[in-house]
Write a structure and sequence with these properties.
Elements: H1 3-14, H2 25-29, H3 41-53, H4 62-84
Length: 89
């Protein structure tokens, strides 16, 4: 497990909101065209919260941003597979 993935897991485990969960590909495919879904919203919120708490010193929040980048990378790979499999236009 990479450090970014480990941090991402910790971020998700610390979340208290029932809405803080990953959007599945099934949900993404079934959404209305005008609805925005961010599967990495938890990591994005955690990154911004870290910046707020650390006086916007990005260097102290690198692990949060790495987790966000890893999440986006995994999501884009999943979308690419869905597109190649004909499930996504």
């Amino acid at each position: 497990m990479t450090e970014a993935t480990d941090t991402s897991s910790k971020i998700r485990a610390a979340s208290q909101s029932p809405d803080d969960r990953r959007v599945s590909m099934r949900e993404f495919l079934g959404k209305r065209p005008s609805r925005f879904m961010d599967p990495c919203a938890i990591e994005a919120k955690a990154s911004m919260k870290c910046l707020d708490e650390n006086n916007y010193d990005k260097s102290t929040c690198d692990s949060y941003f790495d987790a966000y980048k890893e999440c986006k990378k995994l999501w884009m790979e999943e979308r690419k597979k869905a597109k190649l499999g004909g499930r996504l236009k």
